[in-house]
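This section describes the prediction task in plain terms. A model, or a person checking by hand, is given the sequence of a single protein chain and must write out its three-dimensional structure as a string of tokens. No templates, partner chains or ligands are provided. The sample shown here is typical of the held-out split.
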Amino acid sequence: MNNKTNSPFVSSTIMPARVINLAIDTAYIYSQTSGSYAGVGVYMMDNNVEGGSTNEGGLELVTDVTAGFGIAFNAFPIDAAGNQGDTVAIVGFEISDGTNIFGDFGWPTEQPAGSSYQWMGTAIVQGNCTYQIKIGVSIGGAPMQYFWWDPFFNCTA
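The expected answer:
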């Protein structure tokens, strides 16, 4: 059992030090033009306010992380009735500026269905960066539209 998918130690059993959650107002976001996004309706938060993270509640979250520790990501739809079939999916990440804190081996990867976290990575390199998070949004089964924006990481030892 040396391959990741057959390993008895699946990522869902790992407790990351930082968890970043995205709550997305699906009806509002879906009504916007796909692409780079700088508006309202995206609510980012992490579990490190006391440790220095700032700007929770919008799309310019600044997350303080420690090199060597895991970072998990989840995205959730906010819809009016809670049962409209709206979906939000993280589809990727990109470093826009600064240090690639994930290095060569810590880049976030999508986790298997049923895992506690949708994506997980590991901060490897100290530094600061702006990263793009890219999401797909669908309301009521309509085709996905894609949006991205640039939150931040500060990674220390």
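For orientation: The longest strand covers residues 87-98.
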